[in-house]
Design brief:
Belongs to the SecA family. The chain is built from 31 helices and 24 strands.
Length: 883
């Protein structure tokens, strides 16, 4: 009875019920589409595209309500589009779309986060809304977690898209880009037409193209990092031709529609790490090595370790030791010392090798705590990475300077319509709604889940736990039942492997060190007698198929070696077993001294076990302990949510400023382009306005501008103005980002003065941004005024002056050598050097020079304050120097 009542009032069920009428209409079209030829289906797709685009032409794309109006328009064609895709799937890949997959597709089209259990065909389901939204010509992006999945899905689903006349792009790291090639697909098509055994993901069906061409495709697959970095890079270019995020309609920088695969991984797990494009800054100094050596000499009683916050702090005893070794009375008076000490402590005691990072090829590489994969190209900021390099005694790379940055939250909120899918969404429903305005809905499985999830086995300590794990693996292996063992780090991964070797249990190991064998190892993990020990990297985008006779043995048995800090990571590991109605089983082993339990109260339960004199190797299954584990996970989830919420609240301040700066840059790039330039914005008028405010002698500045304008052809003059505007904005914006980072690092201290740090950051950030705008305007005037144009006449005059000076110097040398004071030298002057020949038709050299060297950031400020320029008049928002 209560089950019926819950179903009536369940909001999730209500949302699913609303889809049933649409689902019924799609099913009604199925028979009519079955009777059509391939050519007729293609014609239907083209006709659908034309009708959609004709309807959209009547709308004003600049209207703030346009996204909703477009969505309403597409809703009229949703049944036709989904029925077309379903029939095309059946013909090309011999896979008919289940009703549950169509429901997921409908939820994604509406802009929701859809939960679909592992093995239910999310990749398949996403094609339906992707095609519908791609027919607008405004771009449809499918975001994946790694390059391999982007290539695999672009090839695999490309067979379906191309049959309906759509182009498919794919972007990978290092600016490598592809487009699906239908001719290659036809050439490599299996003789029996069955693609099931084809190895997608190796690029066999793709053709390498430019980045811009990949984005101009109707549908583009790629990773979250690459979409975000391309956005940042597009806002650093100096020409429209260099932009890559341009859709099929020629719209620049439009973020139309995106489906994020494994949405919880990308929008939740990775949201704590912002995307940063940086350039090398100053050389890393020896202080990293010095402080790495000092902190290694400390004892455990010298510092406090904050495991939750991954930080370490000196206590009074530790401070005294460090000050004694350094020969200083107060280490914190020297900011540079304090900074290096803080990073060295954190690196030495809060970050573990083979857990948080690896050392490969003389490099420190970050390991993703959620996937177990190496995060290539990522580096910790604020000197932490250099501190780790000093700790591990590898080459210390240069510190970096942030050029552009954005958080994933603010990047993905750029999309007019965003949706996502994963097997584990509902535990994060609150965050999806609060941060991304995404409603979460769980779609039922096509087949009943047959996996048996056994209760946790809990041990007093890790030693007993590891022994019990290996005992169970050995017993299961004797029966031939395949086993997948999930570990949370490379360290524990290798520990299990060592224990199994001692028992002579054959097994495969998969972690960040041998990730290139992932596809091969995972493909064999469901075979009879296999034992696979893997980090979390085996948890996403992989399909473990059962071998012959394995179903009869009970399917794949999944063993979790400890509970992860997030419940959904545990659920993902479980989800490797029991896919699509297959049998399977799972069990987690917990030690009360595991990190999660130790940090969040497992010692209390261990104390009870000791009081009752329970042996270490006796497993317990107790509802109180199970609740304690779940409570600990909820605490960590809440803690991590607070961190991400905190991050996005602060980044929202920067984001508003970033949008203003990027809009200014884009307007500059569009000048002179008939597609965008309306003629309302004129750089010459703009710079004169700025000169009236910032130049001491406006008349002299205007005369200088007119003189340059008279020398240069109009096109060159306009380009010169654009160059000055862009380079000035870029330089000062980069300095402003650094200044905001410094402000943010110390703003928390204002809480001690009973001030709200976030409010203070908003107010201070706004003031700094106002000063930045003023500094940009001043610096534009200053830089333009200093530029000198080289003309052929000025070059000849310069050459003539050099010649006269050289001749005079030669005469002086001759007089000195002959020992006379007369004008007759005993040596003949050298032949006159010939000036370089110039094209007489070339009126102007395309080279501009400054009459003064650009003041360096570390040079003394010309105002005479004695401070460095970057800390004085060169600081973002500082009072500008008068010309």
């Amino acid at each position: 009875m209560f089950g019926v009542i819950n179903k009536i009032f369940d909001p999730n069920q209500k949302r699913l019920d609303k889809l049933k009428p649409v689902l019924g209409k799609i099913n009604e079209l199925e028979d009519s589409y079955k009777n059509k030829s391939d050519e007729e289906l293609l014609a239907n797709a083209n006709d659908l595209k034309n009708r959609i685009r004709d309807d959209l032409k009547s709308l004003n794309i600049k209207d703030e309500n346009y996204p909703q109006q477009e969505k309403d328009t597409l809703n009229k064609y949703v049944t036709e589009a989904f029925a077309l895709v379903r029939e095309t799937f059946a013909r090309t890949l011999n896979e008919r779309s289940f009703d549950e997959q169509l429901m997921v597709g409908l939820m994604l089209h509406e802009g929701n986060a859809a939960e679909q259990k592992t093995g239910e065909g999310k990749t398949h389901a996403a094609v339906h809304p992707m095609l519908l939204n791609a027919l607008t010509g405004r771009g449809a992006h499918l975001v994946t977690v790694n390059d391999y999945l982007a290539r695999r899905d672009a090839e695999w689903m490309g067979i379906v898209y191309s049959k309906l006349g759509l182009s498919i792009g794919c972007i990978n790291t290092n600016s490598v880009s592809y487009i699906f090639d239908p001719e290659k697909a036809e050439e490599l098509k299996p003789e029996d037409g069955n693609w099931r055994k084809f190895a997608f993901g190796h690029g066999d069906l793709l053709r390498e193209v430019s980045r811009r061409e990949a984005y101009a495709a109707d549908v583009t697959y790629g990773t979250n990092n690459e979409f975000g970095f391309d956005y940042l890079r597009d806002n650093m270019v100096h020409s429209l031709d260099q932009l890559v995020q341009v859709n099929a309609n020629g719209e620049v920088g439009v973020h139309h529609f995106a489906i994020v695969d494994e949405v919880d991984s990308i929008l939740i797990d990775e949201a704590r790490t912002p995307l940063i494009i940086s350039s090398p800054a100053e050389e890393s100094n020896e202080l990293y090595v010095k402080f790495a050596g000092l902190v290694k000499r400390l004892n455990s009683e010298d510092y406090e370790l904050d495991e939750k916050g991954k930080n370490a702090f000196l206590n009074d005893l530790g401070v005294k030791k460090i000050e004694k070794w350094l020969g200083t009375d107060n280490v914190y008076e020297n900011f540079e010392y304090a900074h290096h000490l803080e990073q060295a402590l954190k690196a030495q005691y809060a970050y573990e090798r083979d857990v948080d990072y690896l050392v490969q090829n003389d490099e420190v590489k970050i390991v993703d705590e959620f996937t177990g994969r190496v995060m290539e190209g990522r580096r910790y900021s604020e000197g932490l990475h250099q501190a780790l390099e000093a700790k591990e005694e590898v080459a210390i790379q240069k510190e970096s300077k942030t050029v552009a940055t954005i958080t994933f939250q603010n990047y993905f909120r750029l999309y007019e319509k965003l949706s996502g899918m994963s097997a584990t969404i509902m535990t994060e429903a609150e965050e999806f709604f609060k941060i991304y305005s995404l409603e979460s809905v769980s779609v039922p499985t096509h087949k009943q889940v047959a996996r048996i999830d056994h209760p946790d086995r809990i041990y007093k300590n890790q030693r007993a736990k590891w022994k019990a794990i290996v005992d169970e693996i050995e017993e299961l292996n004797k029966t031939g039942q395949p086993v997948l063992v999930g570990t949370t780090s490379v360290e524990f991964n290798e520990l299990v492997s060592q224990l199994l070797k001692r028992r002579n249990v054959p097994h495969e190991i998969l972690n960040a060190k041998n990730h290139e064998r992932e596809a091969e190892i995972v493909s064999q993990a469901g075979q009879k007698g296999s034992v696979t020990v893997a980090t979390n990297m085996a948890g996403r985008g992989t399909d473990i198929k059962l071998g012959d006779g394995v179903k009869e043995m009970g399917g794949l048995f999944v063993i979790g070696t400890e509970r992860h800090e997030a419940r959904r990571i545990d659920n993902q590991l479980r989800g490797r077993s029991g896919r699509q109605g297959d049998p399977g089983a799972s069990r987690f082993y917990v030690g009360l001294d595991d990190n999660l339990m130790r940090i969040f109260g497992g010692d209390r339960i261990a104390g009870l076990m000791t009081r009752f004199n329970l042996p270490d190797d006796m497993p317990i299954e107790n509802s109180m302990i199970s609740r304690s584990i779940e409570s600990a996970q909820q605490k960590v989830e809440g803690h991590n949510f607070d961190i991400r919420k905190h991050l996005v609240e602060y980044d929202d301040v920067i984001n508003k400023q970033r949008e203003i700066i990027y809009k200014r840059r884009r307007r500059l790039l569009e000048l002179g382009d008939p597609r965008f330039d309306t003629g309302e914005f004129n750089l010459e008028t703009e710079i004169i306005k700025k000169a009236e405010q910032y130049a001491e002698d406006v008349e002299a500045f205007t005369n200088d501008l007119n003189a340059k304008k008279a020398i240069l052809p109009k096109l060159n003059f306009d380009e010169l103005l654009k160059y000055v505007f862009l380079t000035t904005i870029d330089h000062l914006w980069m300095e402003h980002i650094d200044a905001l980072d410094e402000l943010r690092a110390g703003i928390g201290l204002r809480g001690y003065g009973q001030r709200e740090p976030l409010v203070e950051f908003k107010n201070e950030g706004y003031r700094m941004f106002e000063q930045l705008i003023s500094s940009i305007d001043y610096e534009i005037v200053n830089r333009f005024h200093k530029i000198r144009i080289q003309t052929p006449e000025s070059v000849r005059l310069q050459d003539s002056n050099v010649l006269e000076k050289t001749t005079a110097q030669q005469k002086e040398v001759g007089q000195f050598e002959s020992g006379t004071t007369t004008s007759n030298s005993s040596q003949s002057p050298a032949p006159n050097p010939q000036p370089a020949t110039r094209n007489p038709q070339q009126n102007v050299q395309p080279v501009v020079k400054s009459d003064a060297e650009q003041i360096g950031r570390n040079d003394p400020c010309p105002c005479g304050s004695g401070k460095k320029y970057k800390k004085c008049h060169g600081a973002p928002g500082a009072e500008p120097l008068k010309l």
